[in-house]
Amino acid sequence: MKAVQLDQFGIKNLKVKEIAKPSPKRGEVLVRIKAVSLNYLDVLLTSGNFYKGLPNLPYIPVSDGAGVIEALGEEVSGWKVGDRVAVQYVQNWTRGDFQKEYNIRVAWQTQGVLAEYVCLPQYGIVKAPDNLSFEEISTLPIAAVTAWHALINQANLHVGQTVLTQGTGGGFHFCIAIG
């Protein structure tokens, strides 16, 4: 399968490579990636300028993606081949308010999704809405969840309140859509 990979940091070092197609292990699903979206985080990780630590090389970049489940590992429940899914950015955050310990499996600690196929834990994906394209779905994980967390979980925004936003990126657009 094809994947974009870094053997050393720097955007000029991105290379399309032929690598082995992964097979899902126990509790994992194999997702055929249909679309990805880029975030500033991806630029920082690719360039080697991320302040929280860098991924191990070789590294497949890009955090946000959407696709279709192609295979299930042993003991996977709640998913079936053909399900449309989005990749969760913080894969351990499966419900409720954000907790610090959820940060143990995030983009800079795992391989990214700029590949034809990726294996992910069954809890590291969410069902994708049928009414959105894969391109639209791929924009939701980081920007939309960040905006939701900021407005609803942290600011405790309620119907009828006004929010002043500033910016031009994806998070800004989702703040407008949510607010």
Automatic annotation (TrEMBL):
SUPFAM superfamilies: GroES-like
Pfam families per the UniProt record, alphabetical: ADH_N (PF08240)
InterPro entries, alphabetized: ADH-like_N, ER, GroES-like_sf, Zinc_ADH-like
Source taxon at top rank: Bacteria
Domain Enoyl reductase (ER): residue ranges: 10-178
Native organism taxonomy: Bacteria, Pseudomonadati, Bacteroidota, Flavobacteriia, Flavobacteriales
Protein name per its UniProtKB record: NADPH:quinone reductase-like Zn-dependent oxidoreductase
Transmembrane spans: none
Organism field: Chryseobacterium camelliae
